[in-house]
């Protein structure tokens, strides 16, 4: 909540003038900040101590305010904390920078498949991810072709140990990562955000000599500069175009 101005409240849970409990006032002000985008939907809220300091109330008052918002379905809480879940802004909406990197919108590709395996990552992946040489990890592979059968895009993603420790949904794939079944990881970035991770992407695009293709290398880090994933996408630029979308936060 660093982008807001702290409020001055009395540190008490007693009713205010008109009989309104203080926790209801805190809940209303917190809801207003969430609707203003101070904490985007799906992002983790600050802890009770930080919220108490922010609103100038006791932690018990904050706890009551959060319980009220939770009962009304305006926030959701899991083992990693609370996050905004406001009506009209679905928490499950895909991330702006979609996963897997380079996947066209649904219905555009004639053939597409994705699998996951538990194996030693491809050359050049281990060191950026902080993995020891020869250490296996979760590896995601994606392939799609044009309606005429021409291969358009191939992508391989390796995940770091940090990601598998922090993101339960990805960790569950370890026991079934045999490369035979389909892998539905389109919400990978949503899962990361729900785990309290802020995503920082760095994409590098290079031409592949002697071919009509380019290689896009994406590295994703969290707010603590810890590596989360590395993806290498190879795409035929004669057949398709890579589109980037950006969302700029509103000024406050």
From TrEMBL:
Reply yes or no: does the keyword Ion transport apply: no
InterPro entries according to UniProt: Bact_HTH_transcr_reg, Tscrpt_reg_HTH_GntR, WH-like_DNA-bd_sf, WH_DNA-bd_sf
The GO terms this record gives for MF are: DNA binding; DNA-binding transcription factor activity
Q: What is this protein called in UniProt?
A: GntR family transcriptional regulator
Protein species of origin? Streptomyces gancidicus BKS 13-15
SUPFAM superfamilies for this protein:
Winged helix' DNA-binding domain (SSF46785)
Gene Ontology annotations of biological process type: negative regulation of DNA-templated transcription
Which ranges carry the HTH gntR-type domain?
20-94
Keyword Transcription (UniProt): yes
Keyword set, alphabetical order? DNA-binding, Transcription, Transcription regulation
């Amino acid at each position: 909540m660093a982008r807001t101005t702290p409020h001055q409240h009395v540190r008490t849970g007693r009713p205010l003038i008109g009989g309104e409990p203080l926790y209801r006032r805190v809940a209303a002000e917190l809801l207003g900040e969430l609707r203003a985008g101070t904490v985007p939907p799906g992002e983790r809220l600050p802890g009770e101590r930080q919220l108490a300091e922010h609103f100038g109330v006791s932690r018990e008052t904050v706890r009551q305010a959060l319980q009220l918002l939770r009962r009304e379905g305006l926030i959701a809480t899991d083992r990693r904390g609370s996050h905004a879940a406001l009506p009209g802004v679905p928490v499950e909406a895909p991330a702006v920078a979609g996963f897997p990197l380079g996947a066209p919108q649904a219905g555009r590709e004639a053939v597409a498949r994705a699998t996951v395996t538990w194996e030693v990552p491809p050359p050049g992946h281990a060191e950026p991810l902080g993995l020891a040489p020869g250490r296996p990890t979760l590896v995601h592979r994606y392939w799609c072709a044009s309606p005429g059968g021409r291969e358009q895009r191939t992508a391989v993603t390796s995940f770091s140990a940090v990601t598998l420790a922090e993101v339960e949904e990805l960790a569950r794939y370890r026991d079934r990562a045999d490369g035979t079944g389909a892998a539905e990881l389109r919400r990978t970035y949503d899962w990361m955000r729900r785990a309290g991770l802020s995503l920082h992407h760095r994409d590098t695009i290079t031409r592949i000599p002697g071919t009509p293709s380019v290689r896009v290398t994406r590295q994703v880090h969290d707010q603590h500069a810890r590596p989360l994933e590395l993806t290498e996408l190879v795409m035929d630029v004669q057949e398709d175009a890579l589109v980037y979308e950006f969302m700029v936060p509103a000024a406050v």
